[in-house]
Request: fold
Amino acid sequence: MGKLLIVATGRHQRPDAPSPRRGGAHGGDVGFYFRSLTGLTPVVRAARTFQVLLVDDDPAIRFMLHFILDSHPDLRVVAEATNGVDAVSLVERIRPDAVIVGVQMPFMDGLTAAKIMKRVSPETRIVIFSAVTAHPLVEKALDIGADLYLSKTTPPSDLVNAVVRLCVEPTSWPHSA
Reply:
């Protein structure tokens, strides 16, 4: 299964390209990284409504995500969780099409939760949504089974289109290198 990485911080660069700026705010390269992103159309439309679970300990982040995702006709936020333990339980019960999960949360972090969610519900698409864009964390997230890694600076329209496309065409994403 392919994986996608989008980190929106203002300039275009491949993850393996040398960076003129190192050691940014989060200790890694700062850039606009794409992994296997080809042909993402400005507007992606689905034949059905996809169910999304939001997982973040910050209520403002959950509110913002809920607002922008529910404004798209093909997405519906069906539940929210504030930690990884609750997220795993919800995935077991409702089997959403996609989960957008933060990394740093109480009780169980987002990466541990993502790994368990992928094992419990392999068809559920996991999107890691984090302010931390350091390569070791991004690689770890993709290695444990996350389908997509988005920076919290990703523009709302890009986030929505990426989630819809991930749900519509989960097997069409090229394999990551």
Q: What stands out?
A: The CA atoms of residues 40 and 162 lie 8 Å apart. The chain is about 30% helix and 20% strand. Confidence is low (pLDDT under 50) at residues 1-44.
